[in-house]
């Protein structure tokens, strides 16, 4: 009912906004004509007084009266024409005003009946928050939690539950504040510290600041196996330009993660991106060397061969995409030699020489390096 009362008031206001300016215009036009006529009448009275006192000759007085009379006639004619025009305008204005008054409610209410929900009952926020949580949206649940915490700010459990929700909603500043409250009220934990660090880093646009690093390091002290803290600390190394250390940290992390860990995909993606120059020059092509191959000797023959072939193939693919890496080419040639794949080693050597040119210093280094491994460019 309240809605329809408000709608009626708004409709009346819109109608008056159209009608009042039209009514005011006709009044202002008639008042201007009456004022001019009063001025001319005053001039005639003044002329009669001057003639009676002999200040003006009778002939001049007669001529002046005739001129004022002509002005009054012109004013009367203009007033008559104006009144006719005003009458025409008034008729048109009334038609426009009537159409506007009728159109506003008809169009607006007609659209609302089609696009709106007039039959929907009102839902005050208090009633929505009191509903069954299973029937509430995420925003309503968050509002309910915020209302509860506003009344009970010392509820550490409430802050602990709300903090990761804020994080998923990308309300990073609110998430950081909620994690701090949870830590202050319910004590430290690796999960809370890691969440705090993630909120701080995301609030800074993904930059792992000193405050975020402190939070992640505190998390690892409480739980050295916390994957989130380890991942972000490796990211901090990459952002500081310590690309090789970042890659080593991610590789070590990947070796410790269980196969079903949700962090494996993030680590693999970070390692794939580590080939870009902005992370670490040359770190992308650090393929397996002889030590890596020997370290795999403790594995079963099948697993060892699969691991080595995967590493060498990855290095080969990266060099095809970013070929101007002399150290990477020498590492690839040595890997193929250690694996006993002389043909692939010679092919890699030939491709490396072709990239830099047969007469280049790099080509001479490649040839000397291959000779030290007992490999020549041709059989």
From TrEMBL:
Q: Which Pfam families match?
A: TPR_CcmH_CycH
Q: Which InterPro entries match?
A: C-type_cytochrome_biogenesis, Cyt_c_biogenesis_CcmI, TPR-like_helical_dom_sf, TPR_CcmH_CycH, TPR_rpt
Keyword field? Cytochrome c-type biogenesis, Repeat, Signal, TPR repeat
Q: Has UniProt tagged this entry with the keyword Repeat?
A: yes
Q: Where in the cell is it found?
A: Cell envelope
* Region (Disordered), start-end ranges: 268-300
Q: What is its main location?
A: other
Q: Does the keyword Signal apply?
A: yes
Signal peptide (from-to) = 1-31
The stretches annotated as TPR repeats are: 156-189
Every copy of the Cytochrome c-type biogenesis protein H TPR domain together lies at: 138-262
Which PANTHER family does the entry mention? CYTOCHROME C-TYPE BIOGENESIS PROTEIN CCMH, CYTOCHROME C-TYPE BIOGENESIS PROTEIN CYCH
Return the protein name.
C-type cytochrome biogenesis protein CcmI
Q: Which organism is it from?
A: Mesorhizobium newzealandense
